[in-house]
Specification:
Signal peptide: 1-21
CATH superfamily: monomeric porin ompg
Helix content: under 10%
Radius of gyration: 19 Å
Number of helices: 2
Keywords: Signal
Number of strands: 15
CATH class: Mainly Beta
Organism: Mycoplana azooxidifex
Protein name: Transporter
Structural class: mainly beta
């Protein structure tokens, strides 16, 4: 993602309009992974430093979040991550690849009301679907495991953690088995004018390879209303505190656009 793209996103957020009284509350709901809010984020990431040729990867994550009410007390929240990848020289003589990566589908069963102490939580299954359109874009394995989230929202602050663990259960026997833990502690602050400043890590531990991947993400987002459509624009930077051998290193870029559909 080029710097010019970030400037365009910032300009779009500024031109979209002033925040209404309830926009800050709506922006704060975006910080809650199990909020009763339909949202469709498009998250762009660019990282470099792969392999001996300092290869790069442009990743677009399409991440629709759809809550369903199952009774008076419980919701089930569907969270899907659909990766679209353009990468170049991530391994020796690998060339370029463009296409779909492996989809991760999660379902969180979550109480509609916080606990007496104000905690918000959800848990359920996560599935790995071998949808990669190239051997270098996917693991060619089916996987499943548990996922969960725990957070609290106090005033303008939101803090908590999301995690999952996925084991491979079927797929190409010639490809490496998967046993991977994902941990995402996060904290954010939302202003009365619907700006949100966020900090998180998206740490992954590969138990088969005994390797950590730890990008630290800092983002700034702004919720605005274009016509009648609430939209959140975000820009930020990420730093790879740890990565596998021949993995990304140094600084990367993150930007996003999220469409919100309040009930």
């Amino acid at each position: 993602m080029k710097p010019k793209s970030f400037l365009l996103l910032v300009a779009a957020a500024g031109l979209a309009g002033k925040a209404a009284a309830g926009d800050a509350d709506l922006a704060k709901q975006l910080s809650n992974p199990v909020a009763s809010l339909i949202s469709v984020p498009f998250q762009f990431n660019y990282d470099k430093g792969y392999g001996l040729a300092d290869g790069g990867k442009l990743l677009l994550n399409i991440q629709p979040v759809i809550p369903f009410s199952i009774n008076e007390d419980w919701n089930v929240i569907s969270r899907t991550i659909v990766p679209v990848i353009l990468q170049n020289d991530i391994a020796e003589r690998s060339g370029s690849q463009f296409g779909l990566g492996d989809i991760v589908q999660s379902f969180f069963f979550s109480p509609k009301q916080p606990t007496a102490g104000g905690a918000i939580w959800g848990m359920g299954p996560a599935f790995l679907l071998p949808t990669g359109t190239d051997r270098l874009l996917g693991a060619e394995k089916w996987g499943l495991g548990p996922t969960g989230v725990l957070l609290k929202q106090e005033g303008p602050w939101t803090y908590g953690a999301l995690g999952n663990h996925i084991w491979s259960v079927a797929g190409d026997s010639k490809r490496s088995d998967i046993s991977s833990t994902f941990l995402q502690p996060f904290i954010s602050y939302t202003t009365e004018t619907a700006w949100t400043i966020g900090l998180d890590t998206e740490s992954t531990y590969n138990w088969k390879g005994d390797q950590w991947s730890v990008p630290v993400n800092f983002t700034v987002s702004k919720l605005a209303v274009i016509g009648q459509q609430p939209v959140s624009f975000s820009v930020g930077a990420r730093y790879w505190a740890a990565a596998p051998d021949n993995g990304p290193d140094g600084w990367g870029i993150r930007a996003g656009i999220t469409f919100l559909f309040p009930k």
